[in-house]
Design goal:
- The chain has 472 residues and is of the alpha+beta class.
- The chain is 25% helix and 45% strand.
- The radius of gyration is 23 Å and the shape is globular.
Length: 472
């Protein structure tokens, strides 16, 4: 069910070229095609045990953090529970032995029906990269991800160059480079060492809050610590550099299923964007050997003068959807509108795979965000809303919440809640969260008062934004 990984989280890891299908050994191709056929049959039959038997015990979906155990839970609770019928079609485009593994590039399409649906809906349609591994005499899925075929053309001689934003990055010889997507990060790259023991992840994001690089990495580290508990141990955190840029780093060890791996995170900001490098080895004893490769990746990073000066504007020009006229944001594709109060700034951007509109009051650090994303029918509004609250509660401290309420705007019924939390780096926030789910599209308002004492003064502005929501 590796397809479900790419559909729900969207990550990456692949080769540098997939333009033609080379002649393959007939026996190898037959074995690969048989695995994909068993995979499709198990998904369509909703046979969870048969499906999971096709994955190695060390299976990982790079970038999402999904392993075999968490993948099983996701498939059972979301895919199989939400849909009455599932169809999977896979077209294999390339098969290539890579060391002790088999690398496969394929196009995977998944269609679904709920109990009362008359028509099939496309849940996911993506190009995937799979690394298969022999286990007990059978090929199994070992690493899985989703990639962007067009951006593979941006790789030349181990260097990935993004002319739109203006950066380049070179990976060590033999490392695969995979441009893909992430639900929270913009331009997202994953690279994997030849022996599969080391991984490098690069991405950037526009941070909507007034948060510096030190606060950002401290906040991320605190959130991970709360989620992972004693299984995460922070070994070091402090300032460093990435070329000319002041940066902040964190080194930690993570114990998972009895295995110890090591992670090195490096963040820096410039031009209104936060850039992140995350390096990981599947065992802690591999880290010192791999660190030279990790350092060479950081040293290879270059950024154009324009990106240094105002990368956020360049990124918005390439990614932002919809248009803003005076104080009104309109997205014709989604058929929605939302307006900011007079005197507030309003800006359109994208956060990873989500459309996002930021609205800020004339002064202070408070912020209202209008966010939309396609849920693909994976969950009901109630599950999404409660899941959001539980997720926030899990990664923050001092969480407190008012009762959840129903809300109706122009005949659109949604859910609303006011809650408060504290997160290192960001501080204490009082948030009004409102969600609507229409035709599988989630429309969400996250109205944050920072500090919470500002909430009463801002509440009328928050409500004005929420009440301005219209949907064709």
């Amino acid at each position: 069910m590796k397809k479900l990984v790419s559909l729900t989280v969207g990550i990456v890891i692949v080769l540098t070229c997939l333009s033609t299908i080379h002649a393959q050994d007939a026996d190898l191709r037959a074995r690969v095609e048989a695995l994909y056929q068993r995979n499709s049959q198990a998904i369509e039959a909703k046979n969870l045990d048969a499906l999971m038997s096709q994955f190695t015990e060390e299976f990982v979906a790079l970038g999402s953090g999904l392993n075999k155990k968490s993948l099983r839970e996701m498939v059972e609770k979301h895919l199989f529970a939400e849909f009455a019928q599932i169809q999977v079609n896979t077209v294999i485009e390339q098969i290539q032995p890579v060391g002790s593994e088999i690398q496969v590039i394929c196009r995977s399409t998944m269609k679904t029906k709920k109990q009362n649906d008359q028509e099939w809906k496309t849940l996911d349609d993506a190009t995937l990269m799979e690394f298969l591994k022999e286990e007990n005499g059978e090929l199994k899925f070992h690493v899985s991800t989703k990639t962007d075929k067009e951006r593979l053309n941006l790789i030349q001689n181990q260097t990935y160059t993004d002319q739109k934003l203006g950066y380049s990055l070179t990976m060590p010889n033999g490392w695969t480079i995979v441009p893909g997507s992430h639900p929270r990060l913009q331009d997202f790259l994953v690279s994997r060492s030849p022996d599969g023991s080391s991984f490098a992840v690069f991405g950037y994001i526009e941070i909507p809050y007034n948060v510096g690089v030190k606060a950002a990495i401290e906040g991320d580290n605190a959130a991970q610590t709360r989620m992972l508990g004693d299984s995460l141990k922070t070994l070091h955190m402090g300032p460093t550099t990435v070329g000319e840029f002041e940066a902040y780093e964190s080194i930690s060890e993570i114990t998972e299923d009895g295995k110890l791996n090591k992670r090195w995170s490096v963040y820096f900001t410039t031009g209104g964007l936060l850039y992140t490098f995350i390096f990981n080895t599947i065992s802690a004893d591999k880290f010192e050997t791999a660190k030279a490769d990790f350092e060479s990746i950081i040293k290879s990073f270059s950024l154009s003068a324009e990106a240094k000066e105002n990368g956020v504007s360049r990124d918005r020009a390439n990614r932002a959807q919809g248009e803003i006229v005076e104080q009104i944001y309109t997205n014709n594709e989604l058929g929605c509108q939302v307006a900011a109060p007079a005197g507030w700034t309003i800006e359109s951007t994208n956060i990873g795979e989500m459309v996002s509109v930021n609205m800020k009051p004339p002064k202070g650090d408070s912020l209202a965000r209008f966010i939309t994303t396609n849920t693909k029918g994976l969950a009901s509004l109630e599950k999404i809303f409660n899941g959001e609250l539980e997720g926030i509660k899990a990664i923050t401290k001092d969480f407190s919440s008012e009762p959840i309420k129903e809300i109706t705007i122009s005949d659109h019924k949604g859910m609303s809640c006011v809650y408060q939390f504290t997160l290192e780096g960001l501080g204490t926030v009082k948030r009004k969260s409102v969600m609507f789910l229409e035709k599988d599209i989630l429309f969400m308002f996250a109205c944050d008062a920072i500090p919470p004492a500002e909430y009463d003064a801002l509440e009328s502005g928050f409500d004005q934004i929420i009440q301005s929501f219209t949907l064709n």
